[in-house]
């Protein structure tokens, strides 16, 4: 059974159908890319999975359980972590605290336990800090753990977002345009990181513009255009699919019509 | 940070001996007010300072606590200090009921609604709601508190009662601030969408911040009722809410020492300038304006939390 499956998902905004009966599935352990031209509805699909939007119809299943109608924090708790397209860190807080945000949903101490600082609460804080350290070392940011997030470079801020997502111990991580604003060197490092994440047994869903990265990172691609899935398959198959080429480069007829 | 520990010990020792050194009941009374407002400021600090929710109606919860304690102690002769948790719970439940439908509002919208809540409570009290609150005259004859058969009456006795409660408050609040609860509120203040997307139940935490702030304001209300023996709606008007709000913002939103300093400045300083009665408000307004321009994080902004084992940063942090 696949880890995540979308079945005929529909989302409309007013009269606009942003996502039209999109179905695809992500198998456990895979690196899957969701691609499409600007405004194709990639981010809408993304927001439907993470609970920021609720589908009008259709079903989204994660490990066999529906995520439909659940709040984003609940979905993180179920095991789906995300990063944001435009960086959304807690800028005035330290790097380590940003990562501890991801640990939050795996902690249980309540208000009273924290007020009296029970042994259980202290143990939990210690454990969370260990998780934070492990994750920050994984993205090679532990040396900057005490800095405020705003003092990091753009590329490092992206890594911190990934670290924060990993700290929630997800089984699926969804990266929304992680290579945006990165230079070639940083993109190469990102590719390496994605492979490392995958090696840890975490399934990756990548929403990306950078075709080079997607082709190299993903085992499977899903292509959408105007809210509809137009192709699905292995990267080299998809690359040669005439509908995909048309969607990305436009067809002759279209140019004539314009 | 031995320097900080030293400063705190010196201040603690000074204020512990204050009534012995200066037996002037007037200044002890001023300090009692400062302690009370420090408690109120710290309670509002959860909502405004840590979570970034503009609550301009905090006097409502203060009033609910004060009136709960006053009504129960005058009608049923329950010792007033026993009513601390009861009044706190009443204010907390009231906050739960009131804040739940408005918690999703942001910024100035929330501020306007909370002003409304504050006014509704005050007007309800003035109209002798349920025949319990005594209208605009309020409730009088609230019995003095007693601890181990000692009746607390004199300013110095209240000094230790309210001061002691302030210390307990700081103790609990500091620990809570350093926990995942404090962090969760800060994440919401920084970026609510990112907080929710990182797995934080933002609606729950915002409500929790309101409730914990209200519980503490309710307990402060109990102490106020016990100290005054008379309470009336006039003590819980809009300006009261503004004053508590200003204490948090001026002192340093999210910072315990900041809020206490704010209480000293906004409650204590006007007493110093009593001789310049007319000019002091002008001076105060000007000071506030300058503050907001040059130190808009408050006089003592919160320090970053420390975590064991995190690599040291050269040159400190901003």
TrEMBL record, chain A:
GO CC list: plasma membrane
Matching PROSITE patterns: ABC_TRANSPORTER_2
Superkingdom per UniProt: Bacteria
Annotated GO MF terms: ATP binding; ATP hydrolysis activity; L-isoleucine transmembrane transporter activity; L-phenylalanine transmembrane transporter activity; L-valine transmembrane transporter activity
Alphabetic keyword roster: ATP-binding, Nucleotide-binding, Transport
The keyword Transport is annotated on this UniProt entry: yes
Domain ABC transporter span(s) in chain numbering: 4-251
Record-linked Pfam families: ABC_tran, BCA_ABC_TP_C
GO biological process: D-alanine transmembrane transport; L-alanine transport; L-isoleucine import across plasma membrane; L-valine import across plasma membrane
SMART domains noted in UniProt: AAA
UniProt entry tagged with the keyword ATP-binding: yes
Protein name, as recorded: Amino acid/amide ABC transporter ATP-binding protein 1 (HAAT family)
Protein species of origin: Desulfobotulus alkaliphilus
From TrEMBL, chain B:
Membrane-spanning residues: 6-27, 34-56, 76-99, 158-174, 207-230, 242-267, 279-296
InterPro entries hit by this protein: ABC_transp_permease, LivM-like
Acetylation as UniProt keyword: no
Signal sequence range: none
Location(s), subcellular: Cell membrane
Keywords: Cell membrane, Membrane, Transmembrane, Transmembrane helix
CDD domains linked to this entry: TM_PBP1_LivM_like
Organism this protein belongs to: Desulfobotulus alkaliphilus
GO CC annotations on file: plasma membrane
GO molecular function, one term: branched-chain amino acid transmembrane transporter activity
Protein name: Amino acid/amide ABC transporter membrane protein 2 (HAAT family)
Bilayer topology: Multi-pass membrane protein
Superkingdom to which the source organism belongs: Bacteria
Keyword set includes Transport: no
């Amino acid at each position: 059974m696949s880890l995540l499956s979308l079945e005929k998902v529909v989302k409309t905004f007013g009269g606009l159908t942003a996502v039209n009966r999109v179905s695809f599935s992500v198998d456990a352990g895979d690196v899957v890319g969701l691609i499409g031209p600007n405004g194709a509805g990639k981010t809408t699909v993304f927001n439907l999975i993470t609970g920021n939007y609720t589908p009008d119809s259709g079903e989204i299943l994660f490990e066999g359980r529906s995520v439909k109608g659940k709040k984003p924090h609940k979905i993180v708790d179920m095991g789906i972590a995300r990063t944001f397209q435009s960086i959304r860190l807690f800028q005035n807080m330290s790097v380590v605290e940003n990562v501890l945000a991801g640990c939050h949903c795996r902690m249980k101490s309540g208000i009273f336990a924290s007020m009296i600082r029970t042994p259980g609460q202290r143990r939990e804080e210690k454990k969370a800090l260990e998780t934070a350290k492990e994750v920050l070392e994984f993205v090679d940011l532990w040396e900057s753990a005490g800095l405020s997030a705003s003092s990091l470079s753009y590329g490092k801020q992206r890594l911190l977002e990934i670290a924060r997502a990993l700290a929630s111990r997800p089984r699926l991580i969804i990266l929304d345009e992680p290579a945006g604003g990165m230079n070639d060197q940083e993109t190469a490092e990102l590719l390496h990181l994605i492979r490392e994440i995958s090696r840890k047994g975490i399934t990756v869903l990548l929403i990306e513009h950078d075709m080079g990265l997607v082709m190299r990172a993903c085992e499977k691609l899903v292509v959408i255009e105007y809210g509809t899935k137009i192709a699905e398959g292995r990267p080299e198959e998809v690359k040669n699919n005439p509908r995909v080429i048309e969607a990305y480069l436009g067809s002759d007829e279209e140019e004539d019509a314009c | 940070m031995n320097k900080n520990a030293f400063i705190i010990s010196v201040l603690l020792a000074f204020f512990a001996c204050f009534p012995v050194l200066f037996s002037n009941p007037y200044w002890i009374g001023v300090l009692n007010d400062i302690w009370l407002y420090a408690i109120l400021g710290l309670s509002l600090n959860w909502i405004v300072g840590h979570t970034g929710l503009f609550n301009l109606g905090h006097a409502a919860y203060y009033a609910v606590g004060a009136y709960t304690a006053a009504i129960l102690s005058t009608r049923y002769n329950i010792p007033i200090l026993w009513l601390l948790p009861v009044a706190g719970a009443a204010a907390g439940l009231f906050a739960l009921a009131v804040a739940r439908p408005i918690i999703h509002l942001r910024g100035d919208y929330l501020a306007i609604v909370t002003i409304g809540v504050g006014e509704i409570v005050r007007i309800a009290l003035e109209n002798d709601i349920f025949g319990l609150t005594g209208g605009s005259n309020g409730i009088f004859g609230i019995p003095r508190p007693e601890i181990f058969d000692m009746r607390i009456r004199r300013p110095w006795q209240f000094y230790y009662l309210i001061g002691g409660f302030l210390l307990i408050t700081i103790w609990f609040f500091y620990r809570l601030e350093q926990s995942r609860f404090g962090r969760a509120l800060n994440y919401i203040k920084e970026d609510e969408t990112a907080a929710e997307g990182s797995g934080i139940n933002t609606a729950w935490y915002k409500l929790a911040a309101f409730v914990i702030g209200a519980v503490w304001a309710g307990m402060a209300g109990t102490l106020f009722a016990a100290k005054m023996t008379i309470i009336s709606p006039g003590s819980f008007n809009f300006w009261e809410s503004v004053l508590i709000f200003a204490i948090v913002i001026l002192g340093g939103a999210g910072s315990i020492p900041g809020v206490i300093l704010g209480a000293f400045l906004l409650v204590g300083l006007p007493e110093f300038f009593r001789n310049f009665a007319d000019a002091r408000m002008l001076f105060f307004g000007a000071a506030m304006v300058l503050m907001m321009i040059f130190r808009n994080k408050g006089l003592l902004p919160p320090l970053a939390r420390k975590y064991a084992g995190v690599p040291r940063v050269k040159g400190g942090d901003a």
